[in-house]
């Protein structure tokens, strides 16, 4: 559990962020009929726990409701709820290892100003957590495709103008990197 929110609340935020909507009608019977017909992720959440989690999210001002013409209610994420859901996605992010290595290095370089030092340290933290190797203080390398993950970090922290992403055919200390990433076991495409 992260930042004081339960696993069910995190799941609700992520499901809402992914574009699912949860419409609630005035009657509990119809409400649970909607949940039964919703995605399997919604159905995995126990009814009473779902009710408590939704109430907690309302109190935290992470979700809001919109009245529909037919009398039902649609739950939507607030701006703060979207930020919280994105944070949970950051916590779960990882780079997938393909069956074949394409012999390319993904290099992230950044020069984030001193007045945004905290963001610089957070970016370093995320890169290390994703398995990047630190070549220099602001230069990190990884052997597998990770452009989407890097773009996500860049957009989330609003640092596009400070970060460069390079795909390189070779790096001078490649032998060390191959050992670190245990690339001997990979076949090459």
Task: Characterize the structure shown.
This protein is an alpha+beta fold and 189 residues long. The protein is 44% helix and 20% strand. The chain has helices at residues 7-17, 28-37, 40-43, 47-59, 79-92, 117-129, 147-157, 174-180; strands spanning 22-24, 63-67, 73-77, 100-101, 105-110, 133-136, 139-142, 163-168, 187-188. The strands form three sheets. The chain has a four-stranded antiparallel beta sheet with strand order 6-7-5-8, covered by helices on one side. Strands 1-3-2 form a three-stranded antiparallel beta sheet. A two-stranded parallel ribbon has the order 4-9. Strand 6 (133-136) and strand 7 (139-142) form a beta hairpin. The chain starts with 6 loop residues before the first helix and ends with a strand. 19% of the residues are buried. Residues 20-27 have low confidence and may be disordered.
How would you summarize this macromolecular structure in one to three sentences?
By secondary structure, the chain is an alpha+beta fold.
How far apart are the termini?
Answer: 40 Å
What's the total count of β strands? 9
Placed side by side, the strands forming the largest sheet appear as 6-7-5-8
Into which percent range does the helicity of residues fall?
40-55%
Number of helices: 8
Give the SSE order as H and E letters: HEHHHEEHEEHEEHEHE
């Amino acid at each position: 559990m992260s930042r004081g929110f339960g696993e069910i609340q995190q799941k609700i935020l992520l499901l809402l962020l992914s574009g699912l909507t949860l419409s609630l009608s005035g009657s509990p019977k119809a409400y649970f009929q909607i949940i039964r017909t919703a995605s399997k992720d919604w159905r995995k959440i126990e009814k009473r726990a779902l009710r408590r989690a939704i109430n907690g999210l309302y109190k935290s001002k992470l979700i809001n409701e919109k009245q529909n013409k037919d009398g039902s209610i649609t739950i939507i994420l607030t701006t703060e709820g979207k930020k919280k859901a994105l944070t949970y996605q950051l916590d779960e992010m990882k780079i997938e290892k393909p069956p074949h290595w394409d012999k390319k290095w993904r290099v992230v370089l950044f020069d984030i100003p001193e007045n945004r030092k905290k963001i610089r340290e957070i970016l370093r933290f995320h890169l290390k957590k994703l398995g990047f190797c630190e070549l220099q203080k602001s230069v990190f390398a990884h052997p597998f495709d990770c452009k989407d993950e890097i773009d996500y970090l860049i957009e989330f922290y609003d640092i596009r103008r400070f970060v460069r992403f390079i795909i390189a055919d070779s790096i001078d200390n490649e032998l060390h990197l191959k050992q670190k990433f245990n690339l001997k076991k990979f076949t090459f495409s």
